[in-house]
Structures are given as C-alpha cells and as structure tokens.
C-alpha cells in the first residue's frame, strides 16, 4: 500500500502552506478521482493538518468521510475514526481497501485475539485507518495500545452523540475525551450533520477542544422543496404524492407494523415498495436494501433504522408519514433526498391526532424513576448477575424476550435502559455479528471432580480449557471452526456436544448470531444505591419537550418559509426564504414577493450601483441559487428598475 508523504515535525504541521495544499489535491485525485474539493472540505482538512481541533457541521451527503480520510493519508500514523454505526464501518473499510488503503475496525462481538492482532498492526504495522465503536474505547487493552500508537488524527463521526442535550445522546461517546489524556497533542476532528449552537458548544467542551473552532456549511438545501400536508387520509395522500413525483423514494413511519401495512398498500396500488425495520433478520435487511439501491424497488417504507450510511444520491422524495421527535432527526432523514443536487421533495404528512400522540409518546420516553429501578433489578436477574458482580462483562441481549419475561412494555424497557445508560451503569450497543460464547457454570475444582466418563466430552473440555481463559468468570467468545480443527470434531458434532454439556449443567452456550450486546459498565448495586441524576432525567426531559415543540412549530407555522425555520433552528441568523417550499409558493400565488425576494432584489441593485455587470458576475458575488437571481432580475427588468445593455450587462435605470 502506497502512502502519501506527510509532515513529520510540529512546525510543519502547524504551517501547511501551499505545498501541502497541492499534496492534498493530489491525494484526492489519486484515490477518489476528483480534481478539487467540495465547499468547506479543503478548509477543514487544512485546519486539522495544522493540528487544530475542529468541529465541522455539514449536511448529509456533503462528503464528510473525505474530510478525515484525506488528512489520514497525508499525515504519518494511523487515523482513529470513532463511529457507532457498524454497517458504516464495514462500508468505509471496503471502499478504502478497494483503493488499496489498509483499514481495520474494532466493534462489539469481535474475539479478543482478533482485536489484539488488529491493535498490534496499528502499533507496529501499516494500518492507516482504525474504525472503532465508542463502547470499545475505554477497555484497558485499547487504551494501552493507543498510548503506543503513532496517531495522526482522532475523527469523531456523528459527534452530536456526545452531547446529552442532543437528540441522539450516547453515553459511550463521553469516553472519547479520555484518549486525549494519553496523547494530548493529537488534533480532533468532530463531524455532524445536525447540531444546534448549544449542542455544538457542548461537543467542543466534551471533547476538550483547546479552543472553540467551528466550520459549517449552510443548512439551506436549495434543491430540496419542503412541503407539509395536513390530511386525515394519509394513505390516499401518500399515494397521490408518489404518483405525482417520479423516481426513487423513502417513506418514514414510526412503527414496524406500519412499514409492512403501508408497503402492502402501495404494492396493491401499483407502486413497487419494500419494508425495512430493525426487527428483520440481517440477511433480509441486506437483500431489501440492495433491491432498493439497485432500483428493483421504487419505494422503501421504513423506520428510522433505514438510511444511515446508505449512499444513494438519486432519491427524489422522502415522505414522513409520521412526524419526528425533533427537527434534527427530520432534517437528517429528509436530507437523504436530492443528494445528487437535482430537485427533490421532503414531504411531511400531518393529521389532527399527531400532536397529542407525540406528546404521549414523549411521556413514555421518560418512565417514572421507580419503573427505571424495577428494570435495573430485572436486567441483572435476567443476566444472572449477583450484587457486586458483573462489571465489564458483555452479554447478548434480546429486549423482546426480556420484556416478555418480566412483563414490561417494550418501549418502557428500552427507554429505562437508555436512562440507565445515560447514568453510566451499562451500554446497549447496536445490533452486530456476535460469535458463539461459552461459560462454565460449575467451579473449576468441581469440574475436575465430575469429569465425565464419555471420552468425547472430556476431550472437548480439555481443549476448551487449554485454548480459552476466563471461562469460569464470564462468557468467552469462541471460534467454532478453530475449535473443530483443534478437537478433530466437525462443527455439527461440536454443537451436539455443547448441547450435552448444557444438559449436564456444566456449561452455558450462546450460539452465534446477530443481536445487540449489553455491556455492564459497573458492578450490580443494591437497588437502593442506584441513582438517577436530575441532569439525565428532568433536564433532558425538558430539552426533549423543547425539541418536539420546535418540530411542530416547523409543521404548523402559518407563513414562515420552511427552510428559514430550519436554518434559524440551527443558528443561522442570515437565513433567507428558499422560494420553493409550500409556504413560499403560496406567497407567489398571491402575487406578493417574499421577504427573501425583496432582500435579493435590494442586493442586486446594490451590486449594480458599483457599475454594470452580467448575471454570471452577479451570481459569483451573491450566495443564492442562480434560479432565484434570474427570477429577481426578470422582475427588476419588468419593473424597469434595471436595463439590459447590448453587451448583455445589466445596469440601474437612471
């Protein structure tokens, strides 16, 4: 693998200069095939190459991966990329390896020896990118190896997850800052597509930025038309919209059941649709996603489990059948339309019952503290962990089985677990590939005393004890193919022997598969000692209620431009109307110029007061869509406020 030369001294890193800029463009051209960077990419890359902590706010599809991958190649050492999305890790690694760039990943479910091998390669080998799930950062194994690595950059994807005031707070992200204590000179690059000013400030504080430094692109999407439709017959309205807007689409709904019923309704009415939700098997989800990406399905009806990290640029419409809980989530999901820069639509369907339903759902998100404590106690009973035990152990976890056994409503159980996670007691990971696991349920001394008389079982126990450690204290991940080779049995025969050892109450065996993992951050406490902090409950509830209120203000505002409402929410003070959303189009039909059009006309007249100019020159000076500039020029010409000269230049009519 050929790696581009990099700076080797602090002085070089602090002063990139023209040679470095040219080198960055060469890397972009060589590995990605582009001649130049998109807006804000080069500025951000130069910032981190100069050793400066940087937070970049860039909409979905803006090219965030290039922002850390190019400097990762340009600088000596390994770039650490923290991301919670295992599917995204795999996709990024596959793309990098196709470009002959060495990349690895560490996430839940991996076997210790594989993690050990990867970390060794990062310390002593040529690994350029290490993707790691946030819950793996605080392990002693990783911290020890990290301290020995030559790290070029620490990139934090989905950085809003580190803020407890954000819409997707993940406590495991708080561990990232501890890495800075081991190598404080390493620059940090935090990336997110959506963060309010308060969340942006919190991100920089939590990541211990040496100084505040935010780079952002506008949250305006000039090619995306925002529309809200009030209707009590959402099925019929959805069908009408999809029949009127050609091309690929996504329909987001709240529940798994709705994905299936609405997809069925669309298919019955001649629109090829599939459904997608987190409860589907991995292979089915992968196949369904592939059908949609390749155009075999026109529409995907999905929960919010669908879309993150999916690279499909030609989505023409995203419909929200149900409103989101926050404007951040809506902006993220709606932004999956029109990533190719062509015209696309983001439509929200709203009925009279949506507001009270969302309010009731908000109450479910914050169950009473007593219920949270009941879930805490039930969890440890479910995992068979005694008081004082369990710290650092990892357990496959099926929330549906847990809720059914202890008679909890599934959303209540999940939300209670989320609050326990916020308070640092445990971590519930995303679903991932998990290896088979084994644990001896009899003490070591007793095991030797009851060694079974069947030769095959005795041989298998001996192989297990020689190959794996910690089998008496916790579940250990095993490699069944390797174990078959060492023991001389087939994998099918191993399964039979595991079943027999289980029946003899010698082991507990968890087959491999895909499931979330529950990581116990602390030992089990008596329920009386479990504390739920006010910050994680009362204040976060107040913030969540405020976010929900902003979502419905966006949906119900009688006159304001939809794009302006979004931009202001994310802290843009100079937002101007888009001219294409339903509110702007209503004003056009009434024959009244929007405030944004009036402001643009004034700016054009101001530019022309300095002298004649053609439309191309005006567009280069004014940060607005060329279509809006042409519309305003046409109005000014019609009203004879400006004149077009024979050479095509415009001037003010004296």
The proportion of residues in beta strands is 5-15%
Mean pLDDT, rounded to whole units? 86
Task: Give the number of DSSP strands.
Answer: 23
CA radius of gyration is 28 Å
> Helical residue percent?
40-55%
Separation of the first and last Cα atoms: 66 Å
Widest β-sheet, arrangement of strands = 3-4-2-5-6-1-7
Q: How does the overall form come out from the CA principal axes?
A: globular
Please, how many helices?
27
Low-confidence stretches: 1-14
Specify the biggest β-sheet: 7 strands, parallel
The structure class reads: alpha/beta
Give a quick summary of the entry.
By secondary structure, the protein is α/β, with parallel strands linked by helices. 45% of the residues lie in helices and 15% in strands.
List the helices and strands and how they pair.
Layout: H1 10-14, H2 17-32, H3 41-49, E1 54-57, H4 64-74, E2 78-82, H5 86-98, E3 103-106, H6 112-124, E4 129-132, H7 140-148, E5 151-156, H8 177-182, E6 188-192, H9 197-206, E7 214-216, E8 224-230, H10 234-244, E9 248-252, H11 256-268, E10 273-276, H12 282-293, E11 299-302, E12 315-320, H13 327-334, E13 344-350, H14 354-365, H15 369-382, E14 394-396, H16 399-406, H17 410-422, E15 426-428, E16 432-434, E17 437-440, H18 444-449, H19 455-467, E18 476-477, H20 480-487, H21 491-503, E19 507-510, E20 513-515, E21 517-520, H22 538-556, H23 562-569, H24 582-589, H25 595-608, H26 615-621, H27 626-638, E22 642-644, E23 650-652
Parallel strand pairs: 1-6, 1-7, 2-4, 2-5, 3-4, 5-6, 8-13, 9-11, 9-12, 10-11, 12-13
Antiparallel strand pairs: 14-21, 15-21, 16-20, 17-18, 17-19, 22-23
